[in-house]
Design brief:
Layout: H1 2-20, H2 23-41, E1 42-46, E2 51-56, E3 59-60, E4 67-68, H3 69-96, H4 99-103, H5 108-113, H6 119-153, H7 163-185, H8 188-205, H9 208-213, H10 218-230, H11 234-245, H12 254-276
Helix pairs in contact: 1-6, 2-6, 3-6, 3-7, 3-11, 6-7, 6-12, 7-8, 7-11, 7-12
């Protein structure tokens, strides 16, 4: 119980730092703008047989013909889920990349390690704090837009909510890599570049079989295969997220399990390095 209280205190400290840097407020403000758009700019008049007339900013977008409201809602929510997955992780990387390097600054780390906390508790508290900031904003954005759209149309499409755990899990894996880079380099810039590089190159790993066909040696094959399994598979996680929201069958959960294992290994390595550092 005492350990949980200590970690909770560190999470609150991380939230206060995020408030001070305005990153949390900015993320919350962007989410609120999305809610305001669906609340006031989108007008849906539900007719008989599940059909609707749709207006955005007072302009009829249905060409005077009724549209299937359920298909419309699924389409809107799948777009939001895709944007939140990519954009949410992108913004979260920027807003949390400095948390570990800042913690390791002289004066700051000296104060923290003087507290009655083990280094593992301190580091995990920082990790969970950064992850909690992202999770709060995702729950607020996805949950809020789901409530607004459902209340306005009467269509309570629950698969949309699957995107909440998918986005949080995907970021938790990327964030494990970020805290490892942060504790090794103590650099916010390097942390950001590594995280964005993973996001950028992830779609290319989806085409790994095509790349393998061009290789002249098995050595390169095994090297690339090792890199593929060692890195977070954010692009494939995004595809699974979209399939879940649209109610489709997920062909394989392998990217989730392998990426989760990767995240656990990276976080463990980061904790070990942090425990052995001389401050």
């Amino acid at each position: 119980m005492k350990t949980l209280k200590k970690i909770w205190a560190l999470i609150r400290l991380t939230f206060r730092e995020s408030f001070a840097k305005k990153t949390f407020i900015t993320f919350l403000g962007l989410s609120s703008l999305v809610h305001l758009f669906f609340l006031f700019a989108l007008n849906v008049d539900v007719l008989d047989a599940g059909l609707a007339m749709v207006e955005i900013l007072g302009q009829d977008i249905s060409n005077s013909e009724s549209v299937d409201v359920e298909k419309m809602i699924v389409g809107i929510q799948s777009v939001i889920a895709t944007v939140v997955f990519a954009g949410g992780i992108f913004l979260s990387i920027f807003s949390t990349a400095s948390l570990v390097p800042t913690m390791l600054e002289r004066g700051h780390i000296d104060l923290l390690i003087s507290k009655p906390l083990s280094r593992t508790q301190l580091f995990l508290g920082r990790y969970v704090g950064g992850l909690s900031i992202m999770a709060f904003n995702v729950i607020y954005l996805i949950g809020g837009s789901w409530l607004i759209l459902s209340a306005k149309t009467g269509i309570w499409y629950f698969p949309y909510l699957y995107s909440i755990p998918m986005v949080v899990v995907a970021f938790a894996i990327v964030y494990a890599l970020m805290v490892l880079v942060g504790v090794v380099t103590r650099s916010t810039g390097v942390t950001v570049m590594v995280a964005y590089s993973v996001l950028f190159f992830s779609p290319f790993w989806e085409q790994k079989n095509t790349i393998y066909a061009l290789l002249s040696s098995k050595v390169y094959y095994y090297a690339l295969e090792g890199i593929y399994h060692a890195l977070p598979k954010t692009f494939e996680l995004g595809q699974i997220n979209q399939a879940l929201v649209m109610g489709k069958v997920v062909d394989s959960w392998m990217p989730v399990w392998t990426s989760s294992i990767t995240g656990c290994v990276l976080l463990t390595i980061a904790v070990v390095i942090f425990n052995r550092k001389d401050f």
